[in-house]
Amino acid sequence: TDPFLTFWGICQSLVLLLRQMPDVVFAKGGYGAVPVVIAARLYGIPVLIHESDAVAGMANRLLGKISSRIALAYPHAERYFSSRKTAVVGIPIREEILRGDKERARKRYRLRDDLPTVLVLGGSQGARALNEATVSALPKLLARTQVIHQTGTENYRAVVAAAAKEGIKAGRDRYFPTSFLSAEEMGDALALADIVISRAGAGAIAEIAACQKAAILVPLDISANDHQRMNAYEVAKIGGALVLEEANLGAPMLAGKIFEILDDVRLKTSMEKNISVFFNPRAAEVIADGLSELVSD
Predict the structure, then answer these.
(1) Is 90 exceeded by the pLDDT of residue 124?
(2) What is the chain's mean pLDDT, rounded?
(3) pTM
(4) Where would you tag: which of 16, 34, 148, 176 has the fewest CB atoms within 10 A of its CB?
């Protein structure tokens, strides 16, 4: 990052914090957090940072040296920080995710109750490759399952057009693409899903884990510090997910892995149980308690 911009950011942060003078600062990392945290420490304000990924970002590695406390989502990230001020607490998730209603999702998408439901979350970074593989796999998938597909707003029309070329009409033929899922809709879709196909962002994994769903994780090749790949393999290491590299993301492979999990009840049940380790229902509470303790110290 530009040293001048960082210096200027610190100056701006010093002015802002002087006006507000908070009791504590909470930061999630990223270069935008660096000037604020440095300014806070210059004023003697305690700082708690949270690292969501298995591989700590460069900003948090730097900030960890001056922060008062460090909260982690993955034990793998402990190696980047001092153990005396570090704790693995998980990732807070949206409350709506835990209130998901499968029957509400079934009615919303007019889904059958005698077919497994595949939920594809392709609506964020690197959605194109995942969307394309999903559409190519639809003829095989829809022969045995029904599919809810979050495409991303920018990709929705292209996905619907590509499905039409395969002879599949959106909203019919057991295929239900949507550009975006609200928090409530995501909770409902996860509640109904038998298997989830997703990128390996920390937030997505935490929400899948909270709902205890078998998952195929497709790490983004260009993620910073290769954190998505590390996230995915941390989950796979304990049998919580299957990892499918983007280079292997063809229709036959994707459909084959989905059916492999759906057809093996023991494997699917084991994955659902194992991935739940990556959700801590008290994550937000633990972080809030840590902030309160820093204020009291």
Answers:
(1) no
(2) 95
(3) 0.93
(4) 16
